[in-house]
């Protein structure tokens, strides 16, 4: 395998000759080829051709949901992998055809449930493009804050669960503690932690409360320390490096051809980030970097995600500084509900309220595809309007779904235990895959 | 296992584009500038483009089904177009049942940071079949399977076109078609009855059983049930 050099700090290889635990530097800056991927065990001649079928899931803690993998094994080596999905299918796209645009927003919470507020933002952006609406400056910045907070929360869950899959427990606890802070912030803003439903077509459900920004600034101050701690635990840890380097390698052209997106694609050396290349929410005016890997393996995906969290903190910092005053909703009674006191006192507002609630806003006929950079990759919403208040087609382009479709290619030739690490590195959310 | 001897060269999208990407503002609901690909495709494939629509700043080319594969292959490989990234494949059926079913391809050019939508219209009553682009983009593998699963559109040339989100012997049809009721074809009690009556062996696909080489060893009645079970709702 590879000639990648990953610097590894102290580690133990086990017991010494004297029966005491051995504590020696395994290697420092050396060639980890022998350590990273053990050569497949030599096949005994009489066992050749005897392939074995192993079923993982759908109820298995390491498949991150109800994913079923059928593995054809030659000894300990994967010859073929057949993934089966759909155990969580509940027809979101069908239901969306029977709901008004604002009524679809709660469904977007439940598809990629680790990134619910990011999905709300993405859906609202798509619907606004369909309606031909431009949102207010304050709403734009608030949505950036929402999307980046949710990216951090999602990456923390990824890091924690992957650590557990590979055998480390502590970063999981540290990560979930910080994720708790993110959810406390979201709870203070929209009242819900997981199923936020925070956006509306043309604005947000609620403005941030007083002093909320101070809480966010506190998070921005303290969170990088947690990333540093987790990195200290993992980045140069011999076990972590040994279990991740050289696994599931995707070359850049392969990754593009397989339609990978998000950290997976960037770990393969393609710097495609929707925020940079097809910007939305004024992302081109923020100063942030797109981390790119050069090896395309599980270890690089880890490094890319960790660096993305740091960049998200940078974006959050800039967003807090530039957050303008002003309204969060656009001034258009055709899509935005009037304030309650007006709806009960003024005839015009009451009519608008009634029409908005009972009939729903109607976009012009047409279609649009709006993609955002979700923590998993390029998440697109494709909406087709026939002029009524409900879309005649609402399509989710699920990044996890397309990323997972490359898993047979990624695990081929690896060992059974590496399937767990590779599967974890894709960062799948079955709610989004099965929809 | 492919040996990686050196790090990959990093690919930066937009390597042949001078334009600085910016957030689109005041996007017109319809009309606007066409993507440069539209004219190029019309020049390369005269007569293949039925209509070009610009809506919300996005160019849609409505093309003939016979030439869609050659067109996507050309868009992917031509250095002036270079649409090397397949974002999505899906289909649309309109509420007006007289309108044709649309199969939609969303392509991206990372090289020029461009986006284009291709569409094939299949009039009602005709066979729902379009060529597969699996040989061009491996991303099409599951996207086409999902489209088949939800709409019943056959992608000719796909090596493994079977249901993906629903199970293989799902009998009720194709859920995203407009003639499919929201609650499904059967009542809750009928669905429960069907589920309890289903034979669990049918959950294993022929492919899994054949790679296990276990199929020959199964009892005869079980083999017959699996082999003759209806695979789709057609």
Description of the molecule:
The complex is a heterodimer of chains A (435) and B (234). With 435 residues, chain A is α+β, with helices and mostly antiparallel strands. Chain A has a domain at 100-396: Cytochrome-c3 Hydrogenase, chain B (Orthogonal Bundle). Chain A has 18 helices and ten strands. Chain A has helices at 33-36, 92-96, 101-111, 116-131, 137-166, 170-190, 212-234, 238-244, 252-257, 263-267, 274-277, 298-322, 340-345, 347-358, 399-404, 407-411, 416-425, 430-434; strands spanning 11-15, 21-24, 52-56, 68-74, 77-84, 199-200, 203-204, 366-374, 377-385, 393-397. Chain A has a three-stranded antiparallel sheet with strand order 3-4-5. A three-stranded antiparallel sheet of chain A has the order 8-9-10. Chain A has a two-stranded antiparallel sheet with strand order 1-2. In chain A, helix 5 (137-166) runs antiparallel to helix 17. The longest helix of chain A is centred in the middle third of the chain and has 30 residues, at 137-166. The radius of gyration of chain A is 24 Å and the shape is globular. Chain B has 234 residues and is α/β, with parallel strands linked by helices. Chain B folds into two domains: 30-164, NADH:ubiquinone oxidoreductase Nqo5 subunit (Beta Polymerase, domain 2), CATH 3.30.460.80; 166-234, no CATH class. Chain B has six helices and seven strands. In chain B, the strands form two sheets. Chain B has a five-stranded mixed sheet with strand order 1-2-5-4-3. In chain B, strand 4 and strand 5 (114-122) form a beta hairpin. The radius of gyration of chain B is 22 Å and the shape is globular. Chain B starts with 35 loop residues before the first helix and ends in a 6-residue tail after the last helix. At the A-B interface, helix 2, helix 9, strand 8, strand 9 and strand 10 of A face strand 3, helix 3 and helix 5 of B.
């Amino acid at each position: 395998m590879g000639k990648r050099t990953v610097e590894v700090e102290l580690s133990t290889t086990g017991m010494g000759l004297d029966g005491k635990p051995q504590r020696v530097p395994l290697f420092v800056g050396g060639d980890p080829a022998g350590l990273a991927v053990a050569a497949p065990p030599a096949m005994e001649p009489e066992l050749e051709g005897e392939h074995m079928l192993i079923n993982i899931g759908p109820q298995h803690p390491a498949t991150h949901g109800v994913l079923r993998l059928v593995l054809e094994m030659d000894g300990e080596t994967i010859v073929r992998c057949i993934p089966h999905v759909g155990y969580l299918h509940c027809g979101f796209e069908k239901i969306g055809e029977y709901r008004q645009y604002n009524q679809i927003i709660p469904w977007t919470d439940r598809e990629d449930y680790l990134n619910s507020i990011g999905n709300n933002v993405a859906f609202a952006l798509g619907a606004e493009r369909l309606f031909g609406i431009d949102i207010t400056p304050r709403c734009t910045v608030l949505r950036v804050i929402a999307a980046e907070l949710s990216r951090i929360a999602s990456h923390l869950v990824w890091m924690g669960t992957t650590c557990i899959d590979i055998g480390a427990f502590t970063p999981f606890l540290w990560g979930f503690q910080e994720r708790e802070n993110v959810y406390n912030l979201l709870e203070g803003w929209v009242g819900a932690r997981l199923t936020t439903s925070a956006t509306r077509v043309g604005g947000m459900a609620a403005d941030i409360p007083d002093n909320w920004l101070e809480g966010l600034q506190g998070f921005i101050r303290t969170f990088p320390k947690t990333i540093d701690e987790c990195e200290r635990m993992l980045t140069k840890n011999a076990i972590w490096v040994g279990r991740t380097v050289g696994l599931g390698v995707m070359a850049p052209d392969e990754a593009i051809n397989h339609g990978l997106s998000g950290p997976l694609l960037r770990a393969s050396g393609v710097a495609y980030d929707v925020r940079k290349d097809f910007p939305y929410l004024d992302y081109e005016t923020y100063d942030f970097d797109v981390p790119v890997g050069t090896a395309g393996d599980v270890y690089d995906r880890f490094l890319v995600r960790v660096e993305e969290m740091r960049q998200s903190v940078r974006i959050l910092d800039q967003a807090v500084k530039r957050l303008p005053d002003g309204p969060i909703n656009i001034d258009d009674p055709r899509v935005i509900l009037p304030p309650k006191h007006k709806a009960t006192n003024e005839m015009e507002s009451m009519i608008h309220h009634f029409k908005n609630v009972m009939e729903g806003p109607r976009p012009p006929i047409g279609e649009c595809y709006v993609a955002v950079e979700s923590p998993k990759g390029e998440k697109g919403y494709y909406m087709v309007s026939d002029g009524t208040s409900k879309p005649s087609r609402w399509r989710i382009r699920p990044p996890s779904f397309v990323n997972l479709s490359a898993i047979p290619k990624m695990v081929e030739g690896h060992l059974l235990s590496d399937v767990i690490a590779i599967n974890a590195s894709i960062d799948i959310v079955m709610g989004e895959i099965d929809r | 296992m492919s040996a990686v001897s050196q790090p990959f060269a990093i690919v930066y999208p937009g390597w042949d584009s001078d334009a600085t990407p910016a957030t689109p503002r005041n996007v017109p609901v319809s009309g606007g500038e066409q993507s440069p690909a539209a004219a190029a495709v019309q020049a390369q494939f005269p007569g293949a483009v039925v209509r070009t629509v610009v809506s919300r700043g996005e160019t849609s080319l409505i093309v003939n089904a016979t030439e869609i594969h050659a067109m996507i292959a050309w868009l992917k490989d031509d250095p002036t177009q270079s649409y090397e990234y397949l974002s999505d494949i899906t289909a649309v059926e309109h509420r007006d049942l007289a309108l044709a079913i649309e199969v939609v391809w969303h392509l991206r050019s990372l090289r020029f940071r461009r986006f284009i939508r291709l569409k094939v219209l299949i009039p009602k009553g005709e066979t729902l079949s379009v060529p597969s682009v699996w040989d061009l983009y491996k991303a099409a593998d599951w996207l086409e399977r999902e489209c088949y699963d939800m709409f019943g559109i056959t992608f000719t040339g796909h090596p493994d076109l079977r249901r993906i989100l629903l199970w293989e012997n799902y009998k009720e049809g194709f859920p995203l078609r407009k003639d499919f009721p929201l609650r499904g074809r059967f009542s809750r009690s009928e669905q429960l009855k069907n589920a309890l009556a289903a034979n669990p062996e049918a959950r294993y696909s022929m492919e899994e059983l054949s790679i296990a080489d276990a199929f020959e060893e199964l009892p005869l009645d079980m083999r017959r049930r699996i082999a003759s079970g209806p695979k789709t709702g057609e």
